[in-house]
Each structure stands twice: as structure tokens, then as C-alpha cells.
Amino acid sequence: MTPELVTFGETMVRLSPPRGGRLETSDTVRFSTAGAESNVAIAASRLGADAAWLSKLPDSALGRRVATDVRRHGVEPAVVWSDDHRQGTYYLEHGGEPRGTSVIYDRADAAVTTATPSELPTHLLEDVTYYYTSGITPALSDQLEATTRSLLDAARSAGATTAFDLNYRSKLWSPEAARETLEPLFPLVDVLVVAARDARTVLGRDGDAAAIAASLEAEFGFETVLVTRGDEGALARTDGETYEQGAFETETVDPIGTGDAFVGGYLASRIRGEPVPDALETGAATAALKRTLDGDLAVITPAEVERVCEQSGGSISR
């Protein structure tokens, strides 16, 4: 089956002590997997999209665990296997204030950092509807910077709509380095997703979310700009129109992966042919449901998303 959505990036193993515990004293950890691009594919798949995830994994127990986790949520793990590299991991401590939540990455020399276009199953891009990756991927290695550009170009040339989430991570690079690398990719991007704070910090934008979206649309000619605003919801700029969507009220169990859930919900809706305002609503509902779940994944159902959307009066255009 030809996928409707293809994503590309790293998926890591996540290790977390019990809530309130510390890695240095805990006797047990919860074992799960997570990565921005596979998170998006899984959220979209849970809402009915045929999705595949491109990556490179070590041929090890940990690498096979990642592939198994992706597959069990309905996403095809279209991976190349490596005998020479390792599986990236990250450690997460959930802590209340004033300690807060702490993240430690251990992803150096991960197999994905060596992935080249020639070894990946890029034939999947030939008939795909949407292709998605994020700014995390080119931050991981010089090779991935080149591969990110190549795959965006290939997907664009094949007629896919390309979606890119800036997804700035300060532990990976500086705002200046991120901007220098990411802005040259923008001519290959149809749909840009960016948090308002990252647009200001990395892209040097001023004003509110609507002003940010309008300036990015005008300068780079994006088909759609999605600006996320945390507790204030999200905003889309497309065809000269601006649409706003508030955040749904939710009881937060784990906020990690909320942005990926939003993007996955949005893309699933667009793949079904729904208009941007409806896709914004679906994305916001998917994000709200994700926050009720432990772990990075939006393990949700279409019925749950529909029920949350019924609470909304719809998006606002201006």
C-alpha cells in the first residue's frame, strides 16, 4: 500500500523513573520510544492516515524495539539497518516545581546520523500526499543536514506537499546556527510549523502570532504557516486568510509530545481533504488528548477526537 504520509527522522528509546523519582536513586525505569517524526506519523495513523516512517536503526535489540513500537501503532517502519552504530536514548525525570522536568540526551553516534538518501527507501516518496520532517533532524549531523535537504527536494519534485516543523532544541544548537541551517530549506517547504517563541528566538520575528505568520508567508511564500501558541492554541495563515484555534481544556499528565500530536492531527485531517480550519481543530483536539497520556505518543481514537471537537465553537477567521 502506498503511504499517504511519509516522515523522516530519529526515534529514541526513552527511560523514565517513576514520577517524583530520580535517575540516581530509582531502582526501576519505564521503557518507551519516541521521536518527533515517528510521533507525528503515529498520531496521523491513529486517525486513519496510511503512514510510513523513514529512518536508520542499529540491528540490535533496542533498534528492533523501536521498529516494533512504530509498527504496532499502524506505521510502516521503512528503515535501513546498521551493524556499526548505536541506538539513541534519552532520560526523562518528571518533577514538580520548583525542580521541574529534566531531560538528558544520549544520542551521539546514533545510526540515524549516518543515513544517506541512497540507502533509504525513498521510492516511498513517489506517490505520497504529504512528506514531513523537523528541524531536529538536520541538527544531529552534517550528513543529516544534507539528507534532510535531499529528501525535501525529492518529495517536492514528486508532487508531495512538504511539511516542516522548526522544532528548535537549545540542547542541540544555538538560535544562530539553527537559522543559518534551516532558512535555506524553506524554499522546499510548503507547510511551515513553528512555535511563536521559536519564531522570535530563531527567526528573529516580531509581533503576535498573526504578524509572525503573515511575515513568514510574505517572505518565503509558504502555502501555509502554522504558529503554535501553547495554552493559547494555534493559528494558521493560508491564501491570505488567518484562522485561529484555541486550546482545549485538558488535565495534563505528560506534556511531552503535545506539538507532535497537534501536527499529526492536522496532517491527518488535511489528508482526508478537510479545510484548514477543521484541520486546526483536529490538531488542537489531538494535542489535548495527548496531554492526558503518559509517554510521547498520542495513542488516541477518532471517536475521542470527535468528542473533544464537539466542545468547540470552531476556529475564527480574520
Task: Explain what you see.
By secondary structure, the protein is an alpha/beta fold. It has one domain: UDP-N-acetylmuramoyl-L-alanine:D-glutamate ligase, CATH 3.40.1190.20. The protein is 32% helix and 23% strand. It contains nine helices and 14 strands. The strands form two sheets. It has a ten-stranded mixed β-sheet, with helices on both faces. Helix 1 (36-46) crosses helix 7 and helix 8 (276-290) packs across helix 9 (302-309). The longest helix is centred in the middle third of the chain and has 16 residues, at 142-157. The protein is globular and about 55 Å long. It starts with a strand and ends with a strand. The relative contact order is 0.14. The model has no long low-confidence stretch (mean pLDDT 95). It is an enzyme of class 2 (transferase). This is Bifunctional 2-dehydro-3-deoxygluconokinase/2-dehydro-3-deoxygalactonokinase. Residues 4-293 form the Carbohydrate kinase PfkB domain. Its EC number is 2.7.1.178.
In short:
With 318 residues, the chain is of the alpha/beta class. The chain is built from nine helices and 14 strands.
